[in-house]
Amino acid sequence: MVISGLPSDAKPEHIRQIASAKHVVDAIVDHDTIRNVSTGTAKLRVRLGDEEDIEAVKSNFLRAGLSVQEAKSNPNKKPVFTYQ
């Protein structure tokens, strides 16, 4: 999911709390590296159980005044492997 409308001091922990999903795989807040503040967008990946619903997670962000879009993954993208 792509979340937008975040404040300039947003942290990944805030995103995880708002999502309130049991298993948040990744929460990444986009930062402006020059000014060291959030750009207002974040990416969130969650793994949902049988009793959880993606619409419930989206509604948590909408209640917090943020906008949410589903991110589409590219099926043609090849995974990166490292060999040792």
Q: Overview of this structure, please?
A:
This protein is of the alpha+beta class and 84 residues long. It has one domain: Alpha-Beta Plaits, CATH 3.30.70.330. Helices cover 21% and strands 32% of the residues. It has a four-stranded antiparallel beta sheet with strand order 2-3-1-4. The model has no long low-confidence stretch (mean pLDDT 88).
Name the poorly predicted regions: none
- What portion of residues belong to β-strands? 25-35%
- Major sheet: order of its strands? 2-3-1-4
- Our measurement of the CA-to-CA distance between the termini, rounded to an integer number of angstroms, reads 33 Å
The number of helical segments is: 2
Q: State the name of the first-level CATH class.
A: Alpha Beta
Count of discrete structural domains? 1
> Which geometry do the CA atoms define?
globular
Short description:
The chain has helices at residues 12-19, 54-63; strands at residues 2-4, 23-32, 37-47, 67-69.
Sum up the structure in keywords.
Alpha-Beta Plaits, single chain, 84 residues, alpha+beta
Task: Tell me the layout of helices and strands.
Layout: E1 2-4, H1 12-19, E2 23-32, E3 37-47, H2 54-63, E4 67-69
Antiparallel strand pairs: 1-3, 1-4, 2-3
